[in-house]
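Morning, I've got a small favour to ask if you have a moment. I owe you a coffee for this, so here goes:

…
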Amino acid sequence: MTVDSYAFLPRAFRAMFEAEPQFDHEPVWSELTKPLADARVGLLSSAGMYLADTQEPFDVERERREPTWGDPTLRMIPNDVEQQQIDATHLHINTADILVDFNISLPVARLNELVAEGVVGSAAPEHFSVMGFQEDGAEVWRTEIGPDIAARCHAAEIDVLILAPA
């Protein structure tokens, strides 16, 4: 299967993103200091998912007007979420499959299976959803959303945060 990372972007963006310099630093990494079977695991999706009845969708109208801006806000998804509660908004991915099975972008059911099998200690009570594609919104991510996610992980005693990129 061929994956076209640029399928939902304006064609002119491909050259711009391919020309961007790569990061010149090592990834940030923290070693897990306890067995996974004792760890609490949280999930972070960049697929723009939200709770349809209680949360605002991500702001794609502004992004349509300002194509390099992406909504940098955060949505919390409870671990016991059900498919019919989920919706998704994103201009750069096709969200149709998420509306059939949100686990492709936020694998809550798989995580809960690992907990039931004793591979993972516990699942976080809530998981994180953002809308990927942060160009102009990256500063808000660095100064507000990233630190907010870190603080929420600390408060919920999350030992491992798995990014499920869209």
User: Anything to note?
Assistant: Residues 20 and 110 are 35 Å apart (CA to CA).
